[in-house]
Design goal:
heterodimer, A: alpha/beta, Rossmann fold, 38% helix, B: 358 residues, mainly alpha, ABC transporter involved in vitamin B12 uptake, BtuC, two-stranded antiparallel ribbon, 13 helices, globular
Chain lengths: 534, 358
């Protein structure tokens, strides 16, 4: 340590320089301007927070830095001089010391810590080119010491705590940085999204230590508390533009929220659309103001015998579930339907209680569930459109187990017309359709059952804007026909457009509720406020 | 299953008219419609070619052997046709037994030895008491016990199906060896059974008709019943099938059990045709059965494993082998042809399927 103190001064001075700068970068996707002349300056040795709501351009900016997305214009400065941002590539990002650690898929859970570290750079080999496990382990221990990670080199990664796994991923990204050389920039993309609370602190402490050591870190997160706790400077994006730049004491919950949501609700782009939505939802509200019966109740039995109602949805009502990534919003829908074991709440619908893990009974009780991941959890890709539609209603189309094809096809044709599915024929395989039309098929599959309760998870993910509006219309129509709709969306604009009121979920619990009319800004405000309160 | 939405689907006052094209009077529209019909006619022809490519190739090969000087005197004879049809019936039934789990994306590698064990046990059973009914009981018992064991291990213990059935196949091989000592048992098969295996109805082998009947039943269950649809849904996307309320484990288990029953029945048919059983017969069933089941995706319904595709594939491979043997080629040529046909056929199925869906 003593040898280093002499060089530390100049080291600090050097580190004060700008480690990474981006100037006037723009990127347009079709009609959407994802980034609009965005500039960013990251001070060497600082922890720089990058924040923004959904659709703010945050992830486009990160992808641009990684060289995965080519911007339309702009300049970039990494080590030394400026380059045209359009010529940036993944290889160049790596060469100039940008290290990315993503929340998922960056490590191999079944391999040991030493193997994970080696996969980032190559194995220590013996003279005959076989892996020298002894040297490998020794080197891993050295890296673990340097990053002060208290785990065994031959431990399997899956056995470590989530925070330790994340630290191994960081160590792997940074292991080749030479201490004396100019340091690169570590980009952490939502590193705490899947970490429990106490683990977050462990990771943040480690990050502070690395920063104090001179490591520059870009910290991408939606968690205000963490950003206020560890960053020295913050850039907030909104609608593809830089909404605010904050340093030091300016960084607070309020200034961040102001940046994320925009201080005045009537921003120039969304203003007119939003007011329309507000009117629309008011109309809906007045329509459903008649004393509609309760369609869905989530309740919890308290220790002293009373029941505590957490969520209540009336027939004909569309209720949004708002929450941040990792808040358990999707899990809650699956738990209601019985696809995932339930924690400790009861679900009651009109026709009785819904058992904890019995989807068939849930369906009989009038529940319907459109999952988030269409390809993995909803599509029957090789089956025809008619077969995809009838799968939830086989008993309707068959007599003592025998399917009646004419009836099935007729029903499919009727649904295709009713739901505006653009399909060559009812016999075409589902994969012949576009994403939006596939989603309409999935929706029709459930709505043909006239469910009492429709659970919708990200109903328009990966769907173009036209189909998105059509799907919204279909959901509204189902609601006005008496179905209670509970919808999860990471796009608060979608919730505002669709739902009459919303509940806020955090840590798998309903923690707040917002009565309509909803706007994207109100939802952002409340969700982030909740984040602070926790 | 009566629930609140029962009435939703009954098209009592169904607006079917929407589905039909609106009546158009003008000559121009008439012409357009004709053009459209011609187009669909052409498309239908392409569809037909795609769907029945394997059948067409089968016919072409058969015609070739009819006229090829090497085989023109031996291949197109009534006797050879009967042998061809009858000899493949056993493989055909076992192929259907392989097809069922395959529809759920499960491999049953024990199909060959289930049939082999069944053949041994059936031969022993009928030799000792002469009862065909007893033989049927043996078939049922082997199918239910072995298929049930496979199903339980796969669905309850969550062991990979390939591993489970490979292990099961090895165990069954052991049982066969233990019971026979590696030698074909002397057997006294009653006339009633061998008559069934070698008999003709209207000049067609009974055993081939049996195959067609079994195939027809399997086809109807798979394609015209709710159960069959659910099996296809599980094979298409197990997670999605679960989330629409299907009993995915039960369905997979059912395909293992019914598949094993068909294989055991294959063993019985073998005894009836061969008039005995040999301990090594199981191993010779496995690969042809898998080849046929896989090749089924190349015909009738491209991209989907299916019953009639399986039957066509069985006879496609059989005609190929039969013709080559009659021509007197060295046996290794058959191996080349079988392997090549399997790979080419499955590649064809994949290409056709991708072309259709993109």
């Amino acid at each position: 340590m003593n040898e280093q103190t002499a060089t530390n001064l100049t080291e600090v001075e050097r580190a004060r320089r700008v480690a990474l700068a981006v100037q006037d970068v723009s990127k347009t996707y079709g009609a959407t301007r994802a980034l609009d002349r965005v500039s960013l300056e990251v001070t060497g040795g600082a922890i720089h927070g990058l924040m923004g709501g959904n659709g703010s351009g945050k992830s486009t900016l990160i992808k641009m830095l990684a060289g995965v997305v080519t911007p339309d214009e702009g300049r970039l400065s990494l080590k030394g001089g400026w380059i045209d941002a359009r010529s940036h590539t993944p290889a160049r990002a790596k060469a100039s010391g940008l290290h990315f650690v993503h929340q998922q898929n960056s490590t191999f859970p079944d391999l040991t810590v030493a193997e994970n570290l080696a996969l980032g750079r190559g194995f220590e080999s013996t003279a005959v080119k076989s892996i020298n496990w002894h040297a490998q382990k020794a080197r891993a221990r050295q890296v673990l010491d340097r990053f002060e990670i208290d785990v065994a080199a031959d431990a399997h990664l899956v056995r470590l705590s989530p925070a330790a796994q994340m630290m191994v991923a960081i160590a792997r990204a940074l292991q080749d940085q030479d201490d004396t050389d100019e340091r690169g920039v570590l980009v952490l993309d939502e590193p705490t999204a899947s970490l429990p609370k106490h683990e977050v602190d462990v990771l943040l402490t480690a990050l502070r230590r690395y920063a104090a050591d001179g490591q520059t870190i870009i910290y991408v997160s939606h968690r205000l508390e963490e950003v206020t706790a560890i960053t020295n400077e913050v850039t907030v994006l909104r609608n593809g533009c830089v909404a605010s730049r904050l340093t030091g004491a300016e960084i607070s919950h309020d200034t961040l929220v102001a940046g994320i949501t925009g201080s005045s609700p009537s921003s120039k782009q969304g203003g007119s659309r939003r007011s329309n939505d507000v009117i629309a939802s008011r109309v809906h509200l007045s329509q459903s103001a008649g004393f509609r019966e309760t369609a869905l109740t989530l309740s919890r039995r308290t220790p002293n015998g009373t029941t505590d109602e957490r969520l209540l949805v009336r027939a004909g009502e569309i209720v949004g579930i708002a929450g941040l990534l990792g808040s358990g919003r999707s899990r809650m829908l699956k738990q209601i339907f019985g696809a995932t074991p339930r924690d400790d709440f009861d679900v009651t619908v009109r026709s009785g209680t819904v058992p904890p893990s019995d989807m068939r009974t849930a369906m009989k009780r009038g529940l319907a569930f459109v999952p988030e991941n269409r390809l993995r959890e909803a599509a029957l890709p090789e089956l025809s459109i008619a077969e995809n539609l009838s799968i939830t209603s086989l008993s309707e189309h068959s007599r003592v187990g025998w399917i009646r094809p004419a009836r099935e096809r007729k029903a499919a044709q009727r649904l295709i017309n009713e739901f505006g599915v653009r399909a060559p024929s009812t016999r075409a395989p589902l994969t012949a359709l576009s994403g939006g039309n596939q989603q309409k098929v999935i929706l029709a599959r459930w709505l043909q059952r006239r469910p009492d309760v429709l659970l919708l998870d990200e109903p328009t993910q990966g769907v173009d804007i036209g189909a998105r509006n059509e799907i919204h219309e279909l959901v509204r129509a189902a609601a006005s026909a008496g179905t209670a709709v509970l919808v999860v969306s990471s796009d608060f604009g979608e919730l505002a457009a669709l739902a009459q009121r919303a509940v806020v979920v955090s840590g798998g619990e309903v923690v707040d509720s917002v009565d309509g009319p909803l706007t994207e800004d109100i939802l952002n405000d409340i969700v982030y406020a909740q984040e602070k309160a926790l | 299953m009566s629930h609140t939405q029962d009435t939703a689907n009954v098209p009592a006052a169904s607006p079917d008219a929407e589905a039909l094209p609106a009546p158009v009077g003008t000559a121009e529209a008439e012409q357009k419609r004709k053009a459209a019909r011609a187009r669909t006619g052409k498309a239908r022809f392409v569809d037909f070619l795609e769907s029945y490519a394997l059948l067409v190739i089968l016919v072409v090969i058969a015609l070739f052997f009819c006229f090829w000087p090497e085989t023109s005197s031996t291949f197109p004879t009534l006797a050879n046709m009967r042998i061809l049809l009858a000899s493949q019936a056993v493989i055909g039934v076992i192929s259907l037994g392989t097809l069922l789990p395959l529809l759920c994306q499960e491999f049953d590698l024990s199909v060959g030895n289930i049939a082999g064990l069944s053949a041994i046990m059936v031969a022993a059973s009928v030799s000792s008491n002469g009862s065909v009914l007893g033989a049927v009981a043996v078939v049922l018992a082997i199918g239910v016990v072995v298929g049930g064991a496979n199903a339980l291990v796969v669905t309850r213990l969550h062991v990979n199906g390939v591993i489970t059935t490979l292990g099961m196949s090895t165990i069954l091989g052991g049982i066969i060896l233990q019971r026979t000592g590696g030698l074909a048992p002397a057997s006294d098969i009653p006339q009633s059974l061998t008559n069934f295996g070698t008999g003709l109805v209207a000049g067609v082998p009974v055993i081939f008709i049996t195959l067609l009947v079994i195939a027809a039943i399997t086809y109807f269950v798979l394609n015209h019943t709710s159960l069959g649809r659910q099996i296809y849904a599980v094979g298409s996307n197990m997670d999605a099938a679960k989330l629409v309320g299907l009993r995915t484990d039960g369905l997979r288990a059912a395909t293992f059990v019914v598949g094993a029953l068909l294989c055991a029945l294959g063993g019985l048919l073998y005894v009836s045709r061969a008039g005995g059983a040999s301990p090594n017969v199981g191993a010779t069933f496995l690969l042809p059965a898998f080849a046929a089941a896989f090749l089924s995706a190349a015909s009738v319904r491209p991209g989907r494993f299916n019953v009639w595709g399986t039957i066509i594939a069985v006879y496609f491979l059989a005609v190929l082998n039969n013709g080559l043997s009659l021509a007197g080629v060295d046996p290794y040529v058959n191996d080349y042809v079988n392997g090549g046909a399997l790979i080419a056929g499955v590649a064809l199925a994949t290409v056709l399927y991708r072309r259709r869906t993109t």
